[in-house]
Amino acid sequence: MSNTSSPSSEKKLKIAICHPDLGIGGAERLIVDAAVELASRGHYVHIFTAHYDKNRCFDETKEGNFSITVYGDFLPRHIFYRLHALCAYLRCLYVALWMIWLWPSFNIVLVDQVSAVIPLVKRTYSKVIFYCHFPDLLLAKHTNRLRKLYRAPIDWVEEETTGMADCVLVNSKFTASTFASTFKTLHAKGIRPEVLYPAVNIDQFQITSLVLQNNQEPFFLSINRFERKKNIGLSIKAFGLLLDSNNQKQGDSSQKQGGSSYRRLKLVIAGGYDIRLKENRDYMRELMDLTEEKGIKDHVVFMPSCSTEKRDELLATCLCLIYTPTDEHFGIVPLEAMAAQKPVIACNSGGPKESIVHSVTGFLCEPTPEYFSSAMNIILSDPQMSRQMGMSAREHVKKHFSRHVFGVNLNALAVRLLNQSG
């Protein structure tokens, strides 16, 4: 999208955001950023959601710059750990029905993740924007005949209702190409999503001498939700190889200084952990078992659901970020690390290929422990290069992925969409 500001004389809008679960994650970060930026431009912004917990949320949701209303939190998220998609649809439809009944006067509604509500929303409101983080039918498992039967109507509804939006946004060129190859009917109709990259608040990651002077053990950092698709085990395996490689070199005097660093070296695994979700609980245990299997339990620290302040401190003081998902739709955490002036090691696929400049702001690697371990070794053995990468990374994010740039583009799109006839 073009980075063009809309006229200052534009009228102020009433904008609703319909989102399934306002917790902590990349999709939630984008929604909160959208609300903050639109509200800062004088628009009235109101988020409607089926779940919001003030003890597990982004700090901006507590500051009162926009409204948050919850409907339907009593509805189940799953039925005996099954039927998640159906339950998500029912929860969001419940939210949309109450929003339409009690709040009928919005100019624009931004629908996030669950497109099934779009037909209802369009009957009442002027314009509808749908943010498609990734086609849900590709995230779902179609592993057997019963699941295929269950998913068939849901997949059909997803494609049909997505095409009803006045504007479809995606988070990367990678997702845009996936959208075209997945929703072939929509592509044939000429429906082309626009790319609106997620963003970070650069000011949140100011580099201070107090943080940088902390006397602590050096550590690599992994931040992800505790979900198997995030492939966090890759960071543990790569870190184990790094330590094993150093042990084999201890006799080399040229490695003496590095050896000292290696003995103190840690891997910190932080990220979103929701005790309500069985996968989170099971995967955490699997990862802890993996550290024991690799013999590196004493070198790995788990920090599930740490505070925003602690998360920012970790980003400011780590050696670099290890980002392990393959074919990630975009990935907000690499932006946060680069904003904190840290290089990123990530898989050479998906969204990170658009946000990370290889050998300039980090390394793009094949998703194997050997490749990741090699990149980690380069970061550890060349501090000057690592610092230069970090400085380049921050400037890169400031220019292309700041929340200000995101806000300018989103605001211009909203104004343009409302001014379109029909």
Overview of this structure, please?
The chain has 17 helices and 13 strands. It has helices at 26-40, 84-102, 118-122, 136-139, 145-162, 173-182, 184-188, 209-212, 233-248, 256-264, 278-293, 308-317, 332-339, 352-355, 369-381, 383-400, 403-419; strands at 14-19, 44-49, 67-70, 108-112, 127-132, 167-170, 194-195, 219-223, 266-271, 300-304, 321-323, 344-347, 362-365. Strands 3-2-1-4-5-6-7 form a seven-stranded parallel beta sheet. A three-stranded parallel beta sheet has the order 8-9-10, with helices on both faces. A three-stranded parallel beta sheet has the order 11-12-13, sandwiched between helices. The protein has two domains: 14-199 and 402-419, Glycogen Phosphorylase B (Rossmann fold, 3-Layer(aba) Sandwich); 202-400, 3-Layer(aba) Sandwich (Rossmann fold), CATH 3.40.50. It is globular, with a radius of gyration of 22 Å. Its EC number is 2.4.1.132, 2.4.1.257.
Tags for this model:
422 residues; alpha/beta; Rossmann fold; 2 domains; 7-stranded parallel beta sheet; 3-stranded parallel beta sheet; 17 helices; glycosyltransferase
